[in-house]
Design goal:
Structural class: alpha/beta
Number of domains: 3
Radius of gyration: 25 Å
CATH topology of the largest domain: OB fold (Dihydrolipoamide Acetyltransferase, E2P)
CATH architecture of the largest domain: Beta Barrel
Oligomer: single chain
Bound molecules: adenosine-5'-diphosphate, magnesium ion
Distance between the termini: 68 Å
Largest sheet: 8 strands, mixed
Number of strands: 19
Shape: globular
CATH superfamily of the largest domain: RuvBL1 DNA/RNA binding domain
Helix content: 25-40%
CATH class of the largest domain: Mainly Beta
Length: about 475
């Protein structure tokens, strides 16, 4: 096989990769990247520490039961309600449930107060979240170049338009598979896509021939390190030729399809195929558009091209919803294509918003509460806080000096696990400023002077007025 192919095989005017998860969503999940599941044994018992989860064994086992119910389709029309103090792992549990349901199961987190907007109806916000939590796995066979990146060399040339600037005229990419290597000379737009995916030498990528879309599959496992926990995914060196036909699996959500079709733009990928079918220049996702998308999706499913994957919608601070939302939720839970619904709250008895006199447990009306299975999370011990801080320091690639872990564990026990975790990043900045690569106890001490934890702050104010209506 020739390794010096210098053709320009990929079309100009490349389109960006079709589905990019919204930045807001991924940044909300990032603090939980050490969580890989519920960490249960096949019998459903919780390993003391497993899958990145420390302690909280009762709640994890209870969630394991829920996962079984969902998998055996006995959970429809119901919801899981997580109750517990802030920072006790409610969001982490919800994410772990989604992970236990399968890889790439959509997880759509929102906060109750998000429904209050002056532009969009409350029920619309809820409906959209539900659509974003229903995944669609689409299989298509496409012509691609795939391999481990061995070379990534942009070639610059004088820009003829501006006297002094330089532009990238093309980029040379070397791709390696088990069978051989190939050098591609590619259009600068593809270089932009490569930069966007943050591809570096040693990553396994593929480039779609027709669209020029670049997808980073993961890091080649030749580069794997010995950590047990890392946010990186390692993949084997691809087999076969660099240039081949490959069955691509694309994961989108109904919400993505709604949005893509609300602003049709034309193109060749599946998102805009649908766009051209429902072309009308709409800019808003309407019920009618949703029904049309559903119809097309059903067609794809019937043809065996796509598979529906119900995900998890997670509504944090559920007590912030009002009676209108709760009523609508009852209806949503009943719909045939509903995702799994998980609520979380840290409130005890409170007034149901939007009513003047209905006080209910967790501020949730009893008819909805009736559908909920309730799981309580416990406070963490100092030792458990220490373990989680340790896990996070590995994932974030931070080195801790002696005594730092103990110190952070103590901080966490006094205030909350989240507070302890949140000290990590600023502490590493202080360490950097001091010219160290390792966080030392003095950095934590300095932070104590700079910032207050919630309890100290409340005590300073004098009234401790933050606890109104809370159970804990
Ligand atoms: N038992 C646990 N094991 C490991 N990490 C945890 C655990 N509980 C919470 N965390 C982590 O602590 C942080 C705060 O937890 P979170 O789930 O956001 O709390 P909550 O939603 O109850 O306020 C997150 O980064 C989360 O991943
Ligand atoms: Mg939370």
């Amino acid at each position: 096989m020739s390794s010096a192919s210098t053709s320009t095989p990929v079309a100009h005017n490349a389109l960006p990769p079709p589905s990019v998860p919204s930045a807001g969503r991924s940044s909300r999940i990032a603090p939980h990247s050490h969580i890989k599941g519920l960490g249960l044994t096949p019998e459903g018992l919780a390993n003391v520490d497993g899958a990145g989860f420390v302690g909280q064994t009762n709640a994890r086992e209870a969630c394991g039961v829920i996962v079984e119910l969902i998998k055996s389709r006995k959970f429809s029309g119901r919801a899981l309600l997580l109750v517990g103090a802030p920072g006790t792992g409610k969001t982490a549990l919800a994410l772990a449930v989604a992970q236990e349901l399968g890889s790439k199961v959509p997880f759509c987190p929102m906060v109750g107060s998000e429904v209050y907007s002056t532009e969009v109806k409350k029920t619309e916000v809820l409906a959209e979240s539900f659509r974003r939590a229903i995944g669609l796995r689409i299989k298509e066979t496409k012509e691609v170049y795939e391999g481990e990146v061995t070379e990534l060399t942009p070639t610059e040339s004088e820009n003829p338009l501006s006297g002094y600037g330089k532009t990238v005229s093309h980029v040379v990419v070397g791709l390696k598979t088990v069978k051989g290597t190939k050098q591609l000379r590619l259009d600068p737009t593809i270089y932009e896509a490569i930069l966007k995916e943050r591809v570096v030498v040693g990553d396994v990528i593929y480039i779609e021939r027709n669209t020029g879309a670049v997808k980073r599959v993961g890091r080649s496992d030749a580069y794997a390190s010995s950590y047990d926990l890392e946010s990186e995914t390692y993949v084997p060196l691809p087999k076969g030729d660099v240039h081949k036909r490959k069955e691509l699996v694309q994961d989108v959500t109904l919400g993505d399809l709604d949005a893509a079709n609300a602003r049709p733009q034309g193109g060749q990928d599946i998102m805009s195929v649908m766009g051209s079918l429902v072309k009308s220049g709409r800019t808003e996702v309407t019920d009618k558009l949703r029904r049309e998308v559903n119809k097309i999706v059903k067609g794809y499913v019937d043809q065996g091209v796509a598979e529906v994957i119900p995900g998890v919608v997670f509504i944090d601070e559920v007590h912030m919803l009002d009676i209108e939302c709760f009523t609508y939720l009852n209806a949503l839970l009943e719909s045939p294509m509903a995702p799994t619904v998980i609520f979380a709250t840290n409130r005890g008895n409170s007034l149901v918003r939007g009513t003047v006199d209905i006080v209910a447990p967790h501020g949730i009306p009893v008819d909805l509460l009736d559908r909920c299975m309730i799981v309580k999370t416990e406070q963490y011990t100092r030792e458990q806080v220490g373990k989680v801080v340790h896990l996070r320091s590995i994932v974030e690639g931070l080195k801790l000096g002696s005594g730092v872990l103990e110190r952070l564990a103590a901080e966490g026990e006094n205030s909350s696990l989240r507070y302890a975790l949140q000290l990590l990043t600023p502490a590493s900045i202080l360490a950097n400023l001091a010219g160290r690569t390792q966080i030392e106890v003095e950095d934590i001490g300095e932070m104590g002077e700079l910032f207050l934890d919630a309890k100290t702050s409340a005590a300073n104010i004098g009234q401790g007025g933050f606890d109104g209506g809370k159970m804990w």
